[in-house]
Structure formats: structure tokens, C-alpha cells
Recover the amino acids of this structure.
């Protein structure tokens, strides 16, 4: 069995994109669905990982999704539900027969049930809670009592712990005796004091390799860190990435052990945080390929509307100089170049700043050094492009004065763009606003308004 | 000991940003350096994790960096070097006394030495290879023979394996007997056939919990996957994230075990890939806050230059309609609005597409559905903003005809923006070009040129 698994995953010819679900499988699934052939569909779904089945459901349209689920409901276990895009879960859960759904949910660890539940509407939540056994249900309800996006929501409550006076032998016997209730994934034994406060942890590797008589306290890892249950999940992901944690105990306000977070969950959060940043920078709030036209339109409209308002603001600036433009039409031809260069230079500084804030590389202790650097870069690039555009304008329109005007405007706008690109995100961050969310609009407003004003204003002063 | 660790990390008042190095520590370090007080500096550095010491070095300027290293060279072990930004490693290694450097490097696992070496210049590489023991040196040189950014560079060669006929007891005895040579981090026992080909793996948790007589083959995990040694590291990171792997065996072309990759390395790669995407989308090739002015200027110039060329292209389109602008200056006032809205709508579609390509959610099987969706969204938002801008123009300039012109231009440009935003990255991806790298420029060129052409062309036709 393992041999074939190994071969399908390592043979690059099998799949055109390495690991992902390949097009051939998706087409074959479509054919099987069209033929209503549940046996063939089952054969196609069997070798797929839950994450790939979820991807398959995301890639087909709603009609196909329904037919796939009706033809092979047994293939949709809790893991597939967990992997599914949040926007689709409600739809898919609606299609599943209640018994299949109940079985799927019972298989999951408490953190996965929480993840599944938190985005569902009230009636679906209640239906799922009903199928859980009482202890699981209590665990899930407890987790849901923690704030959204906190460590408490992310953690699994199943942990393997040992008192600090134990030896390796006692710990191993304890693990063997509790074989049935062990979590699926655990890499450390968490050592606690009599008040259940974690005091250290031991990797299973060290536990295995040590003599039975060795004290657990002698095997503690340096990397031990606890995570407060109310800590935002983005901070949790940062800590895992920064300190190369594999798992970490979660503690309540009194420092008592309440659960554990493992790196695979932290990696998912890191991935989601990145997605959020990249989409917010582009003025897309949330987005998924499986969103429908109307959802997508509604998500993008507000950002475009904000952009329209700022664009009109820039137009008002242009309107101040209508007379100048009427006399020298070349100004209308050249002015978008200044705005475009300012916008791009500002976006460069801004993106570097947003990213550095996210990774905590940009802090109070180096912000002024970075501001000075950005300004210097803006001035140097501004001077370089001033020369280029001065020359282009001279050749194109034969006017040395116009060349001087555009050159000065270029330097000023690139310097302002650099400053706005760093100062705006830093200020928003200090105010507690996500800099990825709003900086872009502010920065391009500044570069547009300043760009048009300086260029047209100088032109009106010097050329008329 | 563990108690204090736990408290410093969990007390939110201790550090103003949760986990990161706090400003107070950085200031105290600066003071200690200014006073030349190596003892005080040592006290400040002692509690810091290697990743935080690396961050500290990145946040101060080059002069401070040198003084810190000279005052407390013993604090800079291999882990700090590994965590340090690539751009700074060469500088820091240059400051370190040879004996400290040798000791630092000897401590590291082979994958970390490789990571350290691959960005260094030839003489520094040779100096570091010289201090390694012969077996380590051979291992590192072997790893360096794999292509850059491949699984072979990422993996550690230290693995714990067992033949497939072994029992749990035999495996545990083997681990105990080889205690000294075990890798720092291992979570699975890799089970191999007589030709050293991995056939499955067993988590240490299952190994611990099972009776000594149980066959290893009875404990195999479903999640088992092997990674080809030449696979690009971005694919490796994708596989870990998609399939929730914790570690995976790496195999050569004959399927034989050559090493293992653990999730913390995959998480680092995922983080770097995201950084690359976000910076490339903003037209910043590579960037680090510790880069100097001249490096930063050089990195940003080419992207601005490309933008200048496309901006000039758009200006050429405007120049075609100089007569129309000279007669109706309102055109010059309004035209940046069309271009700005098109650019933003295009960036929205583009970012969603680039992200979906990176996560393999956008594939041949759903690309046309997504294109249709984007076009529909573009048309709907275009119609909405056409109404808004038509009304604004009518009120502002009192011309219904101008309102009609800008309304039509808005619909056409937002539809074109949507199409360009999805088709350009998909095409680049098929051609093997990173869509994050070049799509932005192409998309805004299309939206600028089309926007100006449609708006001014319609105006010239209808209004003159």
C-alpha cells in the first residue's frame, strides 16, 4: 500500500502540478457525475486526500457539488469538512444526510469541530452540537466561549501531561495506559506542577531515548513557551514561526494548562494572515474563488468606491488648473506620468513597511532610520527619473521649461511618496488599525493630490 | 527555571508587542554598547532567544552591530547566524573571531549549515567548510550539490529509520542505542525496505503507546508521503500546508531515503514565498529593512523604470486627443478617474488570481468559470460606477453628453480591467513566468491605455 502511495506522489508525470489535484481527475469526476455513476466516482475519490476532495468541491460549481455529495455521501468525512473553504461549508453541510454529518463530526478533534462550527449559522451549529457526546459537546462549547481568533479557539483540549516529579518510566507507562484517549497528534509531554501550571516539556524523541529512571525535569527543552488562552491567533502564529515551536501549551489567566496548539494549526493561521494582508493591500476584503458573482461584486465595491472618492479629490486639484491646461495641452498629456510614478513608488515603500510591521521587524527603535532611508531612496530615484522625464519632455514638446517643471515635480512627488509610504502604515499601526487595510488608499491619495498640485502649480507659475 | 520563562513570555506587560523584542531592551542594549559595558550587554542578551538576538542585530545600524559582536562574541552561536537576515550574514561573519565562528558552525545541523553557506561568497564558504569535521563537511558538500531552492537543500540528512520487519521493541532499543547521534528534532520513525526505500512511517506517540511486540507496519500513518530530492521548495511547502504533514522523508531518483524535511522548515519556506509574492506584486524585487540606501534604490529603480515606460505609453494615447482636450478641458479633469478606477479594479482581480494560482485553487478545470465571474463582476461594478460618475459629471460640468461618455468609458474599462486581471496572470503562469512578478505592470498598462483611449476617443466622437 505504502509503495503505491509513494509512487503516485513522487512521479511528476502523474500530476501536472506536482501535488495538486490534477485536471484529469477533475474531468473524470465531471464525467462520472454526468453519468450518475456513483461506483466510478467512488473509485476516483478513494485515493484522494481530504484536502484534495475539498479542493475538488471548491473547483466545481454548486450543481456539480450537490450531485457529487448525493452520489457518494460516505466520502465526505469530518476531515473534508475541515479542509473546505468556509464559504462553502454551510452549503455542503446542507446537502449531507444527517447520519453522514453526525458521523463526520464525531471523528474530529475538538479544535476542528470548533473551527467548523464557528462560521455556521445558529440552526446548523445546534444540529452539529446535538450529535456530539456530552464531554465533547462541553469541550466545544467551552472553546466557543473564548474570543474569535484567539488561542482558545485554535487549541486542542486533548493534551498529554505529567507531574514534574515523574520519571521517564512513569511517563511511558502513563502514555501506554491511556492509549485510547491520546490525541492524534502529539509531540511533547507537557510537565505540570501540582496546580496544573506547565513548567516545561519533553519531546517524545528524548523520552524514547532515555532510561526509565531519568527524571522528566532533566529532559526539558530550551524552547519551552506557554501561550495565554486569550492571545490573538496572529501572535500565536508569529511565535511559532519566530521560535520554531512544534507545539506549545496554552494556559488560562492563572497559568493553568487548558490545551495545546500544534505547529500545523499555526501554519494554517500564518497562511491565512498572509492571504488577508495581500488581499487587503489590493483592496479586496475577503475573497474565495468559490464566491458567486454577487458576493464578489459586493466585496469589491466599497474599495472601488473609496478609490472613486479619492480620484475625484485628485480631479478637483486638476480642475484648479483648467486655465493652464487649456493653454498648454502638453500638461494634460504629461500629468498622469507624475501621478503614476508617485503611486508606484508609494506602493513600494508601503508594501515593505506593511510587511515589516507584520513580521515585527519595523519597531519604534528603528522607524526613524527606515524613514530616513526611504526618503533618501525617494530623492535619489526622484532625481534619476527627473533627468529621464526632463529629457523626454524636452524632446517630445521642445520646451526646456516644461522639462524643468516635470523634473522638479518628479523629485517632489517621489520624495512625498516615500514618506507617505512609510509614515501612513506606521501611524495606522500605532492607532491599532491594520495598516494593510487602509494604507493603500491614503498613500495614493497623497501621491495623486501632491503630484497633480506640484506639477500643474509649477507649470502655472513658470510657464504662463 | 521554567517558571520564569513561562512568566516572561505570558505576561503581556513585559513586552509591548507580545513576543517580539521590546523597545526597552533595544534601548538598554544601545546604552550598554555606548558605555562599552560587555557584562551588562551579556545580561541583556542572555534571556533572549536566538531569533530575537538576530532581530536585534537587524534593527541596529552597522556600527552598533559591530560593537555588539566585539563586546559579546560568545553570544553569537550558530542559531543566531541561522536566524539572521541573509543580507547581514556576510557582514556579521566578517566581524566574528574565527574560533567563535568555528564553534558556532559545529553546533548546527547539516541543513542549517547549508542554509548558512549557500548565500556566502567563496572565501567565507571555504573558511566555514574547513572548520567542519570530515563527515559533516561531506554531508554539507553533498547538500550543496542539489539545485538551489530544492528539497535537497532544505532537508536534514540525519534521519531515524528502521527496517520494515522490526517490532516496536526493536525500534525503541535502536533509538536508545543511538541516543548520541539522534537529530535534535524528529517526530517519526521512517520505515524502509531492504533497498532503503521508505515504505511508511510511525509517529513517536504511537511507538510509545504500543506494546513492544507490535509490528511497525501495523502502526503506519495514513498521511505518509515522500518528497523527491529535486522538488522545488515551494512545492514542498505547499504539500506540508495542504496535507498537514509534520515531517516527510526525502528520496532520490531511485526512491531511496536520503533525508527528511520537518514542518518548521516548510513553514519558513511558506513565509518566504508569501513575502516574495507580496513584494513582487508591489514591484519590489527583494527587500530587507537592513538594506542600505544604495541597495534599496537599485532594487526599486527597475520597476519604476518599467512603470515609466508604460506611463509614457498611456501619455502617447492622451496626446492623440490633444485637440479634444484643448476644446474641452473637463476631459483632462476627468480622465484620471477612469484610469484610476480601471487600475484598482484590475489590481483586485489580479491579486485574487495570483493568490489562487499560488494555492493551486485556480486550475485549468475552473479558469473559465472564474473568468466569467470576473467579467460579470467588472460589468456590474462598471455599471454602478457609470451611474455615479455620469451623475457627478452632469452636476459638475452640466453636460449630459459628457456624463454619457464617462459612463460608457467606465463600464468598458472595468470590464477590460477584470479580464486583464485574470487572463494576464493565468497566461504568465502557463508560460512559466511568476505571475506575481510581471502581471501588475501589464494590467495597469492595459487599463491606462484602454481607459484613456475609450474615454477620450468617445469624447472626440460624441462631443466635438
Amino acid at each position: 500500500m505504502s509503495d503505491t502511495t509513494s509512487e503516485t506522489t513522487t512521479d511528476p508525470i502523474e500530476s501536472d502540478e506536482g501535488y495538486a489535484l490534477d485536471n484529469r481527475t477533475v474531468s473524470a469526476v465531471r464525467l462520472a457525475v454526468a453519468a450518475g455513476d456513483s461506483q466510478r466516482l467512488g473509485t476516483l475519490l478513494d485515493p484522494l486526500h481530504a484536502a484534495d476532495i475539498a479542493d475538488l468541491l471548491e473547483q466545481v460549481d454548486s450543481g456539480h457539488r450537490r450531485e457529487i455529495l448525493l452520489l457518494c455521501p460516505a466520502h465526505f468525512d469530518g476531515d473534508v469538512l475541515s479542509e473546505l473553504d468556509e464559504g462553502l461549508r454551510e452549503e455542503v453541510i446542507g446537502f449531507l444526510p444527517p447520519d453522514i454529518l453526525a458521523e463526520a463530526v464525531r471523528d474530529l478533534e475538538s479544535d476542528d469541530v470548533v473551527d467548523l462550527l464557528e462560521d455556521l449559522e445558529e440552526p446548523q451549529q445546534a444540529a452539529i452540537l446535538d450529535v456530539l457526546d456530552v464531554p465533547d459537546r462541553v469541550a466545544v462549547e467551552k472553546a466557543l466561549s473564548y474570543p474569535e481568533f484567539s488561542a482558545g479557539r485554535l487549541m486542542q483540549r486533548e493534551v498529554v501531561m505529567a507531574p514534574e516529579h515523574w520519571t521517564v518510566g512513569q511517563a511511558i507507562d502513563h502514555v501506554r495506559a491511556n492509549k485510547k484517549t491520546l490525541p492524534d497528534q502529539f509531540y511533547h509531554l507537557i510537565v505540570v506542577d501540582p496546580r496544573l501550571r506547565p513548567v516545561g516539556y519533553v519531546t517524545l524523541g528524548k523520552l524514547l531515548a532515555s532510561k526509565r529512571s531519568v527524571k522528566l525535569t532533566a529532559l526539558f527543552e530550551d524552547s519551552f513557551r506557554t501561550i495565554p488562552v486569550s492571545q490573538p491567533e496572529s501572535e500565536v502564529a508569529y511565535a511559532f514561526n519566530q521560535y520554531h515551536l512544534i507545539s506549545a501549551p496554552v494556559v488560562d489567566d492563572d497559568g493553568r494548562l487548558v490545551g495545546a496548539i500544534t505547529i500545523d494549526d499555526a501554519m494554517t493561521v500564518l497562511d491565512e494572515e498572509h492571504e488577508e494582508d495581500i488581499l487587503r493591500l489590493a483592496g479586496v476584503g475577503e475573497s474565495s474563488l468559490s464566491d458567486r458573482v454577487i458576493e464578489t461584486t459586493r466585496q469589491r465595491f466599497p474599495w472601488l468606491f473609496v478609490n472613486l472618492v479619492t480620484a475625484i479629490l485628485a480631479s478637483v486639484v486638476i480642475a484648479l488648473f483648467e486655465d493652464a491646461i487649456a493653454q498648454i495641452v502638453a500638461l494634460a498629456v504629461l500629468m498622469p506620468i507624475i501621478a503614476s510614478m508617485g503611486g508606484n513608488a508609494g506602493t513600494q515603500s508601503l508594501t515593505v513597511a506593511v510587511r515589516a510591521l507584520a513580521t515585527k521587524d519595523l519597531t519604534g527603535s528603528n522607524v526613524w532610520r527606515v524613514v530616513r532611508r526611504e526618503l533618501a531612496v525617494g530623492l535619489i530615484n526622484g532625481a534619476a527619473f527627473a533627468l529621464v522625464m526632463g529629457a523626454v519632455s524636452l524632446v517630445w514638446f521642445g520646451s526646456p521649461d516644461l522639462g524643468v517643471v516635470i523634473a522638479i515635480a518628479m523629485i517632489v512627488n517621489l520624495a512625498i511618496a516615500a514618506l507617505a509610504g512609510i509614515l501612513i502604515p506606521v501611524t495606522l499601526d500605532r492607532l491599532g488599525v491594520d495598516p494593510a487595510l487602509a494604507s493603500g488608499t491614503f498613500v495614493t491619495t497623497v501621491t495623486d493630490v501632491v503630484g497633480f498640485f506640484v506639477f500643474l502649480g509649477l507649470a502655472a507659475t513658470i510657464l504662463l
